[in-house]
Every structure is written in C-alpha cells, then in structure tokens.
Amino acid sequence: MNTENRAVIDTKRIKARSIYRLLLIGLSIPMGVLGFIFGLFGCFGYDTVSWNQQYIHGLLALPVGLFIGVLMSAIMTAIIGSLSCLGLWIYSRFRPLKITVLD
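^ that's the sequence the OP posted. Answer follows.
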C-alpha cells in the first residue's frame, strides 16, 4: 500500500540559494567518495592523484584525493548552478514551475 504524501507546489521563482544548496549536497557526496577511492588507490602506488602535474603516492594521497573531490564539486556547483539558475529564470518567464514534494 502506497502511503506517500504528495504536494504539488506551483511557483514563479526559486531562490538561487536553494538551487546551489541542492547541487552542492548532491555533488559533494559522490565526488567525496570518488576522491576517497582515488586517494586509496594512490596510497597503494597507482597514479590516480596528481597535484601541480606531479603524482602523489602514500598516505598523503588520501587527504589530497578527498580535497580534490570536494574542490571539484564546488567548481561544478558554481558552473552548473549558474547555468541552472539562468535556465530556470528564462523558463519561469513563460510558465510557472511545478515542484512535487514527497513526505
């Protein structure tokens, strides 16, 4: 039996802060895990982590891999978030946005 509570919200605008926040959360977790995996491989001698065109091996590869993952998620959030805000702003000029919220 499906007991989901659904609500549909019609809105004209969404705050840019909400878009950036969702993207940052959504990208940070997988990119952090990917950075951890690459750092783990770097600990074992694989050339998976590089900084300033030099490969990093050993235990230093783990925090550097995590840092690169978080840094890449922040850069991707800035770029994709800005493009999403622009696209949603243009879309909202013609039609209202419908957001389905699940509880």
